[in-house]
Design brief:
Structural class: alpha/beta
Strand content: 5-15%
Strand order of the largest sheet: 1-7-6-5-4-2-3
Number of strands: 12
Helix content: 25-40%
């Protein structure tokens, strides 16, 4: 049977305290016990269904975690206050002083900065490699390596990770494969391909309304318990806890994710094909010209397409900035970082979301000054959007 993530979300049914079709929101920071023994048992992690303190867990957070675990096909999940609040505890839980990480070189700038600049304070070192070359990944592994880290579809260059190939290497060397799936929810299911843990920034497509930040770690019950442990759990002790009201809000939005991803993908495919047809240097996994097009196709779940992210290169930062300002002026979207909003968002990653990566390393990985990253919106009339974008490009002599 093919894995169908949207069906798994669809099949979850929660009843509110008074029979509401949405689960009741637990708006408490602390919880009462009918007996002192139950409090002791809960501290020891031995009392199911009992809540202790909201930094540890809340009913609202558990509902959202269950839904996201169902989507990714894991035993359970833990939601956090931001995407980085999910990424950093996972690394800290899996690695200690003297340990080593092999990471994709093209990853979100915040993750890169954490691994490159912050983790070394704890004597955790990282080798950044071209994740698309499995032999290079394997060659970077040392006796101290604990984790292979990558993004299903990388930010911002849209390189595609061969998750099944990486999983084989991870298992061979007894490592954990951690995959950030923020760019490709529903389209790709890393756990089904052999990954050990999946991370999302819920801020992006999953929430979809650019009104909150959040994160999630999907994994085994054992690993999530470790993250939540009151004694040595990185999620519990680093404290990046999601607020219950936010969890309830994200859960409501999750229910329309399948419809939104279909439209994001449909619109992005249309624009990518048109841009490429105009002779613009266009990168989108749905294009035959993308080096990993066949790989993505072999991994993808039916219906959700190749995602809503694409890049074009207009030659220089000046042209990129002028085009983005003009597109914003014409109401085509916003000059803003992040992704997954109902309107198109565009930014020049070299000077924004990837600015933490030094310039020489940006050049080495192919991140050029003129690159514009688009998160394509839910436009109902994408043909009209394209025509206006084309006019903007003509006006600025990009075409």
């Amino acid at each position: 049977m093919a894995f169908k993530p949207a069906n798994n979300i669809q099949d979850l049914q929660y009843f509110g305290e008074f029979g509401g079709v949405n689960p009741s929101i637990s708006d408490s920071s602390t919880y009462t016990f009918l007996s002192a023994k139950t409090m002791f048992d809960t501290f020891e992690g031995n009392a199911d269904g009992c809540y202790l303190y909201s930094r540890h867990s809340t009913p609202s957070n558990l509902y959202l975690g269950e839904a996201l675990a169902a989507m990714e096909g894991t035993e359970t999940a833990n939601v956090t206050a931001s995407g980085m609040g999910a990424i950093t505890p996972v690394i800290m839980q899996l690695c200690g002083a003297g340990d080593h990480v092999v990471s994709s070189r093209t990853i979100y700038g915040g993750t890169y900065a954490f691994l490159k600049n912050f983790a070394p304070r704890f004597n955790i070192k990282t080798s950044f490699v071209d994740i698309t070359k499995l032999d290079v990944v394997e060659a970077a592994i040392t006796p101290n390596t604990k984790v292979i880290y990558c993004e299903s579809v990388s930010n911002p260059l849209l390189e595609v990770a061969d998750i099944a190939g990486l999983a084989k290497i991870a298992k061979k060397h007894n490592l954990k494969l951690v995959v950030d799936n923020t760019f490709s929810p529903l389209s790709i299911s890393p756990i089904q391909l052999g990954a050990d843990m999946v991370i999302h920034s819920l801020t992006k497509f999953i929430n979809g309304s650019s009104d909150t930040v959040g994160g999630v770690v999907c994994g085994t019950q054992e690993f999530i318990n470790e993250l939540r442990s009151v004694n040595d759990g990185a999620c519990m002790l680093l404290g990046a806890t999601m607020d219950s009201l936010r969890a309830a809000s994200v859960l409501k939005n999750l229910r329309t994710l399948h419809i939104r991803m279909q439209q994001h993908s449909l619109n992005a495919t249309y624009l990518a094909e048109k841009f490429e047809g105009l002779g613009l240097k266009t990168v989108y996994p749905g294009l035959q010209s993308h080096p990993s097009h066949k790989l993505f196709k072999s991994m993808m779940n039916d219906k959700y397409g190749y995602g809503g992210m694409l890049t074009i290169d207009v030659g220089s930062l000046e042209k990129a900035n002028a085009l983005m300002e003009l597109m914003q002026e014409k109401n085509l979207g916003y000059l803003a970082v992040s992704l997954g909003f109902y309107k198109t968002l565009f930014s020049a990653p070299g000077s924004s979301t990837s600015s933490e990566i030094p310039e020489d390393e940006q050049k080495e990985m192919g991140l050029s000054d003129g690159l514009i990253r688009f998160s394509i919106g839910l436009d109902a009339d994408i043909e009209r959007t394209f025509k206006v974008m084309q006019d903007c490009m003509k006006e600025l002599n990009i075409l």
